Amino acid sequence: DDSFDEECDYLFKSVLVGDSAVGKSNLLSRFARDQFQFDSKPTIGVEFAYKNIRVGDKLIKAQIWDTAGQERFRAITSSYYRGALGALLVYDITRRTTFENLRKWLHELREYGNSDMVIVLVGNKSDLSNSSRQVNIEDGQSLAQVEGLSFLETSAMENLNVEEAFLQMINKIHEVVS
Ligand code: GDP
Ligand code: MG
């Protein structure tokens, strides 16, 4: 909802990063609009979404940028990261390569992003945990610990931990800036 602009105390830009098809766009649509798409439609992705969140007595307007499919072509530009205070760094627990590629994404975040950017590591598709898990929860936890990140497993499909992931990021940004 864009109608509270004047009343907002803060505008926080944050970004979604991670390999193609890990579920970035669905995490955002779940959080912003409570919607989920079974098909992946990268080319018609929105560029960003807004959500107003109250933290204590402050109203925060969270502006969350999605890649609109550019990650497929390794064409994410520095302007995507510019001014971002937070990032959800997403992998797919059913595809090991998406976890291995986190190094590359972390490198990019640290190269282009703010030095005190809040990064939340997200292992998405936890609904497929029993049938096709390729990344143990401990692997996510230990990478997060080594890199100093928060960590959660989510399911955009079943709406598990999605709000928690975004709110953790937004609350931590609020702690950093206030
Ligand atoms: P993006 O390329 O990272 O933006 O990924 P998308 O959001 O487009 O999702 C890629 C595919 O994974 C789509 O077919 C989604 O329906 C599916 N997907 C996304 N999140 C989940 C989830 O939590 N569980 C399952 N089972 N599928 C998901
Ligand atoms: Mg997408």
From TrEMBL:
GO terms for cellular component: endosome; plasma membrane. Belongs to the small GTPase superfamily. Rab family. GO terms for biological process: vesicle-mediated transport. Keywords: GTP-binding, Lipoprotein, Membrane, Nucleotide-binding, Prenylation. The keyword Coiled coil does not apply. This is Uncharacterized protein. The gene is LOC101259423. It comes from Solanum lycopersicum (Tomato). The chain holds residues 4 to 181 of 225 of the full protein. It is found in: Cell membrane.
